[in-house]
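Researcher: Let's do a round of design. I'm pasting the structure tokens now; please hold your answer until I've finished.
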């Protein structure tokens, strides 16, 4: 049915490649492209021999001209960007230049500033409309599935949504004293930034990890959850009419936070350049180089994740509550695709977003976040492709 160019060769890209190959009726041909060709070739070797035709290419995704040339050569129907968030705009520029649809899993952020917002990508809306192509932003889990969950709740269970609490809990254990479950540079930038949440039309900022609660999550039990800023808060605040409060919560163990505080105290989480032995380096990028590669955590990680949305609002004039979530098992993910659940929960929705564009189900000119489309096809696909969801109509609420 179609062709996909997959940019990136890390843990999430590996899941996307596996899932595309599981659906050869949709993805007849894929090309895996990354700066490190050996990683692309290793993925191809794992999956060669199936119905999906696989090719590889070396690519500097920071260079728009290189991306354009590869798109012209391969002629995909859609580009799935699972590279770094710093590269979103160069890849979007290449898609505009070639008239190809675009999907990513995280919003653009400048490399020299820990600033997460959609303004840079939303500014492309008119150009994508004029080009007649779709840019689907944030088609991972959070952002991504959390937006679809919210749109599904609004369509089926609420007349108005007033409060959204997104809770991302990882109860997995990889056995290392300290490691991050996705790109260390992005992960640590995100966690060490100020928290922020939306309430009554305003953004309220909090010191990093200063807001803590305990929440009893299905299948993994009570966990410490901390308030962070996450990019889907911005898109949901813009796209869910009448919403009054949106917060994002993530679990961290005390061991993780202790290690992070020490690293922060000695300057290793800084993104300010320093000179070391006559060379300029970024401390956080050096730390990333010595931490375990998240793609290597699959065979070591045991336990489960639970990610979902606790929603409050009204239906027929009466108060209503709703909790929709997915529980994912690290070991089951590894048995299926050789990945831990963090990469799995991001990679599967990226494939689903691309699939819905190729099928013409989620395809309209412009730049959109996932909650702006009909959620039902996506929700059905989650159940079919490894991320089944569950519902609770009387959840414990976060005050």
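Researcher: That's everything. Go ahead.
Model: Designed sequence:
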């Amino acid at each position: 049915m179609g062709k996909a160019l997959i940019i990136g060769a890390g843990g999430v890209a590996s899941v996307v490649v596996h899932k595309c190959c599981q659906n050869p009726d949709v993805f007849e041909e894929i090309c895996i492209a990354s700066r490190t060709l050996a990683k692309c070739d290793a993925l191809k070797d794992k999956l060669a021999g199936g119905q999906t035709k696989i090719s590889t290419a070396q690519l500097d995704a920071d260079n728009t001209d290189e991306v354009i040339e590869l798109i012209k050569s391969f002629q995909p129907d859609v580009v799935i960007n699972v590279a770094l968030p710093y590269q979103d705009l160069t890849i979007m520029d290449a898609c505009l230049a070639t008239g190809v649809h675009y999907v990513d899993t995280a919003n653009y952020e400048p490399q020299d500033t820990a600033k997460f917002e959609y303004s840079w990508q939303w500014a492309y809306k008119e150009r994508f409309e004029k080009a007649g192509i779709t840019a689907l932003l944030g088609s991972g889990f959070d952002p991504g599935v959390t937006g679809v969950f919210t749109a599904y709740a609004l369509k089926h269970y609420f007349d108005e949504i007033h409060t959204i609490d997104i809770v991302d809990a990882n109860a997995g254990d990889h056995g290392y004293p300290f490691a991050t479950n996705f790109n260390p540079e992005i992960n640590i930038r995100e966690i060490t930034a100020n928290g922020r949440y939306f309430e009554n039309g305003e953004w309220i900022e909090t010191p990093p990890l200063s807001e803590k609660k305990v929440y009893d999550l299905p299948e993994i039990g009570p966990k410490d959850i901390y308030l962070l800023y996450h990019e889907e808060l911005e898109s949901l605040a813009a796209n869910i009419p009448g919403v009054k409060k949106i917060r994002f919560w993530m679990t961290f163990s005390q061991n993780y936070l202790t290690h992070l505080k020490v690293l922060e105290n000695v300057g290793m989480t800084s993104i300010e350049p320093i000179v070391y032995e006559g060379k300029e380096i970024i401390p956080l990028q050096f730390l990333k180089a010595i931490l375990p590669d998240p793609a290597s955590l699959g065979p070591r990680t045991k336990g489960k994740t639970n990610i979902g949305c606790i929603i409050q609002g009204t239906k027929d004039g009466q108060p209503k509550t709703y909790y929709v979530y997915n529980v994912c098992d690290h070991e089951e993910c590894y048995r299926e695709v050789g990945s831990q659940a963090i990469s799995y929960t991001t990679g599967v929705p990226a494939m689903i977003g691309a699939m819905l564009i190729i099928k013409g189900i989620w395809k309209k000119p412009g730049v959109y976040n996932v909650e702006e489309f009909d959620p039902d096809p996506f929700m059905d696909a989650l159940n079919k492709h490894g991320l089944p969801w569950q519902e609770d109509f009387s959840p414990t609420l976060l005050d």
